[in-house]
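HUMAN: Spend a minute on the protein record below and explain its fold to me.
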Amino acid sequence: IICLFTMLLSTTINLVSMFFQTNSILVTWGITLMLSVCIITPFSMGAKIYMLEFIRGSEVTVGNVFDGFQFAIKLIPISIINIASSYLLIYGAELLFSGNILFSLLGIIAGVLYLLINIILNFSMYLIYDNDGKIIKSIKDMAVYMLLKGGIIKFIMLILSYILWFFGIIISFGLLTFFVLPYMEAARAVFYDDIYTFIRSGN
């Protein structure tokens, strides 16, 4: 329920952000940043904290979804980087379908960079929680693990393990989403917990 609530909230905020789009990129970017800093990112982290404590066997309540707000100020850099990196995806898609081989290659590179940034920041939010809000150390440790310790390959394997579930969602006309989404969040939390154990061991 927490996962579904966070997804619906994020989707709603994104739609509101699109509604307020103007011809000014700075105004649009500012509105998106404000919504991300104040609502999306803290709720997203709250959902991660909830699931992480759940898989660790701790007692959790619906109130845990609001725990991300205690890190709201420290999450501002993540919101800024997330929004800025989204332009890599937008312009990368334009380059990919430009019809020019060189531009298409640049578009693919931009897309890969976006995915790497998104994965590192996403898992850094768990680490910020475990590191008592130490954001720079958390992002650095996660980047080192993902880029130098084979974390990206392991994460890709995790994503590939969802393929049959995705087919199930399509076949069930979306009904399986209510089971698959929490399952995916729990799997990511377990994946992170293994990362945290590895990082703490000093490897």
